[in-house]
Amino acid sequence: MPSTISDIQVKTIAGADKQLGEYAGKVLLIVNVASQCGYTPQYKGLEELSQKYGAAGLRVLGFPCNDFGAQEPGSNSEIVNFCTTKYGVSFELFDKVRAKGSQQHPLYAKLTSAVEPKGEVSWNFEKFLVSKEGEVVARFRSSVGPDSPELIAAIERELAK
């Protein structure tokens, strides 16, 4: 398993390889997203976080995932179209990943073993907060919305460091 998030390679939603180390010095909010979920309206709040804190160094990274209720069946281009037209998403989206199971992406293997509660992602829109140094510092369940005081406080704490 990679020692930090920075060591992990992912694919952008356009199919290009990207090293998460490119975000060194930024605070990351990594979210497994889906277009047909009860939590899908959280896209709006994630975009608001991106807009509000982007200049301060926050990067929201959305990883489409079809692991939970097959709620992200679309192609990458369909996902981009949905997110931009319905929610005005401008934060970065990536290629679909497996967040759990035997084909779990290395990113999610690292995220789910780094902070409490440890263990597999249980549903869409779980959020992981990563420090400027690439360390996973907090995990928030799907029910914790982007406008949640506890999430906002954690983001502001990391940005202030």
TrEMBL record:
Keyword Transmembrane helix: no
Keywords for this protein: Oxidoreductase, Peroxidase
One Pfam family matching this protein: GSHPx
Protein name as annotated: Glutathione peroxidase
InterPro entries: Glutathione_peroxidase, GPX_AS, Thioredoxin-like_sf
Record flagged with keyword Iron: no
UniProt xrefs under CDD domains: GSH_Peroxidase (cd00340)
PANTHER family linked to this entry: GLUTATHIONE PEROXIDASE (PTHR11592)
Family of the protein in this entry: Belongs to the glutathione peroxidase family.
GO molecular function: peroxidase activity
SUPFAM superfamilies from the UniProt entry: Thioredoxin-like
